[in-house]
Every structure is written in structure tokens, then in C-alpha cells.
Amino acid sequence: MTILLTNAWLLTIDPAMTTHNPGWLQIEGTTITALGSGTPPTIENAEIIDCGGDIVMPGMVNTHCHMAMSLFRGLAEDVDDRLYRYILPLERQFVTAEMVRAGSALSALEMIQGGVTCVADMYYHETEVGRVAAGAGLRAVVGQTLADFNAPDHQTFDEGFALAEQLADEFAGHSLVTASIAPHAPYSTGLQMMSRIARWSDDHPGVIVQIHLAESDVEVHWARDTHGQSSVEVVHRSGLLKPDLIGAHCLHLSDSDIALMAAAQVGVSTNPRSNGKAGRGIARVEALRQAGIPVGIGTDGPMSGNTLDLFAQLAPLSMFAKLRGKSRAPLAAATVVRMATIEGAKVLGLAQSIGSLEVGKQADLIRVSLAAPRLHPIYDPYSALVFAALPSDVTDTMVAGAWLMRDRQMQTIDPQKALRDALQIAAQFNAEIIRIDGTAP
Amino acid sequence: MTILLTNAWLLTIDPAMTTHNPGWLQIEGTTITALGSGTPPTIENAEIIDCGGDIVMPGMVNTHCHMAMSLFRGLAEDVDDRLYRYILPLERQFVTAEMVRAGSALSALEMIQGGVTCVADMYYHETEVGRVAAGAGLRAVVGQTLADFNAPDHQTFDEGFALAEQLADEFAGHSLVTASIAPHAPYSTGLQMMSRIARWSDDHPGVIVQIHLAESDVEVHWARDTHGQSSVEVVHRSGLLKPDLIGAHCLHLSDSDIALMAAAQVGVSTNPRSNGKAGRGIARVEALRQAGIPVGIGTDGPMSGNTLDLFAQLAPLSMFAKLRGKSRAPLAAATVVRMATIEGAKVLGLAQSIGSLEVGKQADLIRVSLAAPRLHPIYDPYSALVFAALPSDVTDTMVAGAWLMRDRQMQTIDPQKALRDALQIAAQFNAEIIRIDGTAP
Asked: Which secondary structure element, helix H or strand E, spans residue A11, and what is its range?
């Protein structure tokens, strides 16, 4: 089956940032087989879709997420001790396979509606996340979290490794879902366990490692007080600092930390809205990129960042860099769009197959409607995407040649059911919050 | 004619932040005449609108804008010298009454679609802006800009005053549009002219004064080098620091500047996206509010901020305050929503008639659909508005009891015509930009 998209404003995000307007793109099976400007080729039996001048671009890559946490969205907003007061008690009581399924389905729905075609997730009961992604047709890197606090799905690290093994087995060879292992953070995993995870990872080539890295003052103090080093140096000592690693957040980095990370060829996921909302600081994104480190964009969990589309991250990411640099120049709009697509793919080790519209790559793409007056005039399509477009402008989402959304209609998820299941569990949370607060929140 | 809204999640934004869910609200003519919880009253011949559980709240107040500049949206993004390289030459060549009409109409359309019901604008040919607002049914404070550079509509300050007089005459007694005078900025107006404007303002009670204040390093240096004072101190000396003044931006403020402003009872418009995009810095919003200064939210012109709805400002405003305070606590979500509504109304001197849903106030309100899965669960409606809602969630916009948008259908503006007129002029800009650059942008 061949699909031919015509009359599109194609932003390929290839190395030359080639655009075609009007452009066309041909898809056979899961793969982009041709694209160009001007008159499209004549193909028999192709489904021809006139894009009416809309933008067609690579689907966005969300490089850090906890999909199940959509059920905590907006809970205990503006409260500094929310982690210990609300989240950990709620997680211990309520995080079950069923909860993870419901929260992940709501998040998958939101990501598909908002133009995300690939996500890196880390949480508990992660096999369920992989199944939800596979069912929704979403590309995903799913990481079993290992932590030394009372995790909801394992009591010991041995049990955690067993879950990671199961996850790797279940998705071995899967076309969309890649297994991953996710030590929660240096301070909550410890040097010894990080070393063991590094060896485990060596024995499981292709299994991505995800970790919260250099995120908080707590972590900085732990590394200094326990090891007399920076957090990045401790991770390096454990053997985990290597090309398969995704470091999420990376707020507290010295120049020598960045040099270590660059030499080790790790990838970074920056999470501007999550970091901004927590008042944690502004990541040194320009310095990381100048050191040659690929930096993708993450939403973090919806309790921290509230939204799962990348549009909500683009303007904050750009503004933070400009505020840090005291100039309009840092992180130009086109660079931000590259980070949301090809650079995110690189962070996930998937740049050979996704992240740009090029012949031979997987057909992971979105169509962005230009119907809204608020987008016009458009002197620069990247500026329009970064500073004016909304996730609700995405009308069509395709992964591996399959439509997940067509003309805003979901193809693989029943939105009513996903929302109903989620709200049923959220109602239980609400009752518990009222108990914790002693009053209605 | 009576309108009864039923089955609404009413956020009144009254002093007690009263909510009614399900709530009802009764409108007679231009005015809110009753509201409450539970079963609505039975009223003969009323138009009854079931809001299906959606949020109904006061329309948002955009306290700083240059509506006509929508035609420059996204132009020369990421370029530090854009003002001198692009904007001023383009303004001198292209800013005519016709251009101002077209740009303002596009902006009025976008604001109504995004839930803004009142705007403070300052630009050239400002009578045209007032006419566009009046025609669209939008509430507006329209300020004739006075500046000592080659303004597009006046060569001398005397000519500028004549335009301000005409503006005040045309809208004297108008129910929606209030005339205003707008010295561009301290450095571009000068002490002597600011003094003259202060006296003119004393002779024109009710005419709001708008000024760009403490916005840039250029201004800080000018005030120090020319007067040995801060910019706020120079404005104070001119007599302009008074309750009718709206200071836009206010980024470079000392504690004593803030004390001066508080004593003078001025209002402030903070413009987070514009300031963030320019890398100019983070306003001391918490300090201003703690000093008792009302702080409203502005979009700035769409060349600086790109969007004209306030939803795009809410999360950045909150994140900036939390980054400045290194905590989640500053500017809680409910406070941010107050700033977007009642506090903005206070800045514009309109808090007695708009900014909250209370009996006797004007019926300026919006309905925000909760249909999108990305908004749920909702533990706190203010968090949902600040961190998850989009301008595209606004389905209905009412000013003074008249619908400007119903179920996303525009009632007072032809969107196709507004967009067509705007794009026609933007095409001329594009040709000139290509000439300036010597290459395609």
C-alpha cells in the first residue's frame, strides 16, 4: 500500500534543513520511499492525500517521561514538599499494573493528539507501558525503574533486575518498543548498584539506560558528601557514563562534567517546563550542544510538567536559553525544532531510522494545520512552530506508516474509554489527598 | 433580553475566589444580574445555555499590546539588532492607517478566539485601533504613541498631541473604548516632554497614560548618564508617576524604585514571553505585588511575543517567578489567574466594572471547554488553566453581554477577510525584507 502526501509544506529536518513547498512525500509500508518539490509522481493505486499547504514534518520525540503519572497531573501544585507529602505515599498505595495502564493510555492519547510519535519513558510496571505504547502504535523506549526506596513493584534490586529482564524479553525484536533499564537517580541507586547496572547493560547491548542526572541540590550534596565528587563523576566511576545513557535534566553541571559527558558520548534530555515549574534552574543547553552532546527535549511526568506534547516545551526552552545568554541569539527557532525531532532521536539511539523525513527512514510524521489566524503571517515556519503553534494544530499523526490520528480522529485508542478509566482512578487519589490534608484541597 | 448560563464550573475571581460547580449566571443587557450554585432560577423568555460542565470565568485582560504589529509576527526571529535592521525601516515605510487597521483586525480576531476580552494598546494611527476594537465589540484602552524618533504618524510632539486630542474626542463616552496617551519610553520622550504629557493628562481626567518603563539596558544607561537617576526616578520627576500610569515591562527596578511606584499607585504590565524571548530578564513580579502594586499580564506586540492570548503567558510568568525564587511556591496558579483577570482590570482602572464575575459588573466572560484529555484529571482548575489549557480551548467569548464568539464561530469579525487583508500587506513586508537581507530570509 502506497500513500502519497501532496501539497505539503515539507520540513524535512535533514542535515541541510531542506524544505519543499509545495512538496510531496511517498510512503510504502512503514518507510519513506521518495519525496520532493513540485509535481508529485503518478503512482497507481496510491492513496493520495492533499495536505492543503499544511506543514508536514517529522513526529516529535519526547525524550523523558513518566506516562503513568498523568493521573497526578496538577496535584499539589506550588507545594515545595509535594514529593514526600503526596507523591511517594500515593505511589506506594496506588501504583499497580492497572494504574500504570490507565495513566499511560491517557498519556499516549495526549501525545498522539499533540504530535509526539516517540517517547522515552521510565516508571514502574514498565511492561504495561510498553504494551500500551505497542497497542497505540506509538514508538517507545520503556525503562524499568530501579530505586532503593520502597518502589511500588520491587522490594529488592534483584527483583528490579528480574523485571528489567522480563521487559527485555517481552520486547526483544519489537518493531516499535525498545526495552530500557532506568536507575532512578545516582543518590537513590548508589555507586555499587549503578556499577551492577552498567555491567548488566554491557550484557544487554541495545538496551538504553535512563537516569535522572544532576537534577537537584539533594543529589549534588549527596555526591559531594558521600563521594567527594560531582554527581556526573560518581556515575562515570560506576561505568554507566556511556553512549547508551540518557541523562535527564542535567541542571547542575560544571565544565568538567560536560567534558566527561561529551567524551563518554551520552545523550541528554532537557525538561524546561518541569525544571521551570520546580524553580530548579536553567540547564546549560548551549554549552552541552557546543560540546557535541545531543540534547533532546522531554516533558517529564505530567505531575512535574503537566503536558505531554513538545509544543509546550519549545518556547520555554528557547526563552530560558536567551535569558541565560542575555540575547535573542541562543537556540534559534530552527535549532529548537531540530532538538524536538532529529536530536531527540539521536539521544534515543534511533537517528538512523527516525527524526527526519528522508528516503529509507521510517514514516513517523505529523501534519500541522496552518488554519489558525494566530499563526500568520509566517515569515519563518520554525518560528511559527516554536512560538505560535499549539498541539491542537496537529491534525494527523503517523508512526511507521500507520495513522494513529487522522483529521483529529484517533485511530488506535478510544479516547472516551481512556479518559473514563483515568478519571476513575484519579477519584481514588482525590479521596486520599483529602485524607492527607485533613481538608478538601 | 436575558441570558442564563447553566451547568458551568464558575470561577468568579471575586475577592473570596468563590467557585460554583455546577453554577449558573444570569445576564441582562450588558450586566451580570445574578449568579450562584445549584438549581438555576426560572426566568421567562431567557436564552438558556447549558455549559456542559465547562469553565466559565472572566475574560482575560491583556494589559500591553501593539495590535497592528501582528503583521510583523515571527519576522527576524533570534536577531539581536532586529529593531534597527528591520522594524524601524519597515515601520517608516509601511505603517499607514490601512496597515494599522489590517494588523489590528487580525489581532482582535486572535484575542477573541483566545479569550481576551479587554486590551490596552499603544501604537500609531491609534484611532484606527479604537475603531477596529469598537467594531469587533472588544473592550480596549487605546493609546496614541508619542516619540521623538521619526514616528509614522507625526513629525513633532505638537502633531502627536493633536492626534491624542482627536482620539480622546472620538471615544469620549464610548462604552467599550477608552482613549489613552502613550509616551513611547522615557529615553525616547525625554523629561521635558514627559512633563508636558503629565500636565496634558491632568487636563484629561480618565485618560490612561501608558509607557514602556525600565525595559532595557539602553534606558537604564540613558537615565543614569543624562539625569544621574534611575528611569523610574526620571519619570517621577516629570510628574507622570501617578495612578493613571501603566508601566509596561518594568524589568530594571531597585527597591526604592518599587517604593516610589507603590506610593504613586501606578499599575504595571508584565510581559513574560516578550522579555524572555529578548533575553532581557525576569521582572520582580512578587516584589511589585508585595508592595501593593497591581500587576497585570501583557502579550506585548506580536513581533516581540508572537501570540496575543494570555494562556501563552501564564506558565512562563509562573515559571519565571519560581526560577527567581528557587521554589515552587511563588505565584501560585490561582494568583496567576487573578493577574490575568481582576488584577489586569485594576491596572487599566476598570476593576469596578470588569475582571470578575460579580453582580452589577459587565458581562465580560469566556467559556473554556474541558473536552481535551490533556486537561485531566483536574485537581485544581487554576492549575489546569495555567499549565495545561490552550487558547484553542476557549469556545465562547462575551463582552458587555454580547457574544463575540459562539462555539468557535466569530460573530463580529469575518476571519477570512481579516486574514486575507493581513497577508496582503505582509507580502509587501516580505519583499522589503528580501531587499534588506540581499537574500531570501
From this structure: strand A2-11
d(CA A235, CA A254): 14
Could you tell me where the beta strands, DSSP code E, fall in B86-158?
116-123, 139-146
State pTM to two decimals.
Answer: 0.97
Pairs of CB atoms within 8 A across A/B: 218
CATH superfamily of B2-58+356-410: Urease, subunit C, domain 1 (2.30.40.10)
- Chain-chain contact of B73 with A326 (C-beta, under 8 angstroms): no
CATH of A2-58+364-408, one of 3.10.20.310, 3.90.1170.40, 2.40.170.20, 2.30.40.10: 2.30.40.10
Per-10-residue mean pLDDT, chain A, length 441: 97 98 98 96 94 98 98 89 85 93 98 98 98 98 90 92 96 97 96 96 93 96 97 98 96 98 98 97 98 98 95 98 96 98 98 98 98 96 98 98 98 98 93 76 44
Q: Is B329 on the interface with A (CB under 8 A)?
A: yes
What is the Cα B272 distance to its own chain's centre?
Answer: 12
Average pLDDT for B73-88:
86
User: Which residue bears the cell 560544571?
Assistant: A254
Q: Number of H helices and number of E strands within chain A? A: 18, 17
For B313-342, write each residue's pLDDT tens digit: 999 999 999 999 999 999 999 999 999 999
Q: Report CB contact under 8 Å: A390, B388.
A: no
- Size (chain A), residues: 441
Instruction: Classify domain A60-347 by CATH number.
Output: 3.20.20.140
In this predicted complex, what is the ipTM?
0.96
Residue with cell 534530555: A269
**Contact between B374 and A110 using a beta-carbon 8 Å cutoff:** yes
Rounded to whole angstroms, the Cα distance separating B172 from B177 reads: 9
Q: Which of residues 297-326 of A touch B (CB under 8 A)?
A: 306-309, 312, 315-316, 318-320, 322-326
Determine the residue type at A170: E
**3-state SS of chain B: helix, strand, coil percent to 5?**
40, 25, 35
